[in-house]
Amino acid sequence: ARGAESSPAPEKKGAAAEEDDFGYRLFPDRNKKPQSFLARSLFTFHNRCQVMLRMTLETNPYAQLLLEAMKQSGCTVFNDRHFSCENCDGCVSGGFDAATSQIVLCQNNIRQQSHMNRVVTHELIHAFDHCRAHVDWFKNVKHLACSEIRAANLSGDCTLMNEIARFKFGLKGHHQTCVRDRAVRSILAVRNVSKETAEKAVDEVFDACFNDLEPFGRIPHSKADARRAYRDFQNRDRYNANL
């Protein structure tokens, strides 16, 4: 998915907030009071977002595998608790708010089901990392870089068709280049750091995090790959249950 798909954080007070708001400026609805059901129902963006989200969670193999993996890790995801359709600034598509364990979906910027599928998958990978590891989203840029690498690598962000749609073409090492570039872009969108700092963090953890394929067990380059990975994941659990 396009833009920042990373983890915002609690607001800072005073001068520190001006230095780094951890990406919260991109998600202005985070600090607003929730709208009433009637008010939300009048906004077609919100309704469309909810419908597309439901479709993703019920039919997309990437999302289904991640939801099952999180449940088995003790982090069951609930639609009405852990997802929030909101208006966002700029071209950001979504974010994982680690402070509330909630995925933000940018209802004003997600207009196609395929886009929703990628954003939900991308953010669920962040949520999965948050569940299984002690990720220091806000102070350790290498932790953030690792999850961004994994999200770009495993969510379908860098499939050949998506890259062609962005008018980016390449052969040898193209997937790795896409993953690296998108991880750097995501860090820069939500953290007040230099490009050099973001690139250094990504490079330092790239090999280990690019090769961490959990819970997929492979890089799912297509829905067919994701379906096979989901089936393998389910069978792996059956095997472990019989040990």
Automatic annotation (TrEMBL):
InterPro entries: Peptidase_M76_ATP23 (IPR019165)
Record EC number: 3.4.24.-
The keyword Protease appears for this protein: yes
GO terms under cellular component: mitochondrion
Keywords assigned by UniProt, alphabetized: Hydrolase, Metal-binding, Metalloprotease, Protease
GO molecular function: metal ion binding; metalloendopeptidase activity
Main enzyme class: hydrolase
A Gene Ontology biological process term: mitochondrial proton-transporting ATP synthase complex assembly
Family statement: Belongs to the peptidase M76 family.
PANTHER family per UniProt: MITOCHONDRIAL INNER MEMBRANE PROTEASE, MITOCHONDRIAL INNER MEMBRANE PROTEASE ATP23 HOMOLOG
Protein name per UniProt: Mitochondrial inner membrane protease ATP23
Species name: Neodrepanis coruscans
